[in-house]
């Protein structure tokens, strides 16, 4: 269900920070028309850290309603409080989400046993499949492969989004977590290599601006066509790096604004893209065919 090209959707906002639901609706329809296979609502890229609980759930419900079962909607429901992660996951299930993307608890740095118990508790309470999400560069803790293997024993823990773009980690996970357990790259710059090494897809920031190209990459990689995979990835290489020149989602929201897809709203403590990064991001957009010269 969660294989292929999944987009980590931004949450469009008005200049005053209110969620722009009209722009959100348009993004959802655009992605589905462009071949995106799954929508992730209110993950890191969706500014989950600055949305209220009510807003968080409202965005999830809106994406589900607009998608209208055309593609799966994965709800970001992670928190550094297990009780809060459970509550969000239960609500997402009741709203009709196809799955829950649960990031490792951030800031409090739980040990591996704490991570294990946290995820097990979330899965026990959930009515929908759970996707583990490991992004130590943002959370301060690393879900190790051996812990992921332990967690895969739970029938509702069905996938892992792995943002450690390390070849050894990729190979270890694929060898120790055989299909049908789904492995998704969370690092755009190494996603092609990860999929060629056996990962099943990607949850992508880059797909926000070039959804058709990301779908093409995923199709080629899943078919094992190395040449076609490299050809599809080449125009996006600049985006993979430039969209992280400032903390995500600052660059990707600026890029979508330049494309006329969303307005310029973003919530503090995030701010507008720094001026010195505008040229490299714009150049990457042009190179990828997302903007004209």
Automatic annotation (TrEMBL):
Its EC number is 4.3.3.7. The active site is at 133 (proton donor/acceptor), 161 (schiff-base intermediate with substrate). The keyword Amino-acid biosynthesis applies. GO terms for molecular function: 4-hydroxy-tetrahydrodipicolinate synthase activity. Signal peptide: none annotated. The keyword Glycoprotein does not apply. One of its GO terms (biological process) is diaminopimelate biosynthetic process. Pfam families: DHDPS. Homotetramer; dimer of dimers. NCBIfam families: dapA. This is 4-hydroxy-tetrahydrodipicolinate synthase. It comes from Abyssibacter profundi. The lineage of its organism: Bacteria, Pseudomonadati, Pseudomonadota, Gammaproteobacteria, Chromatiales.
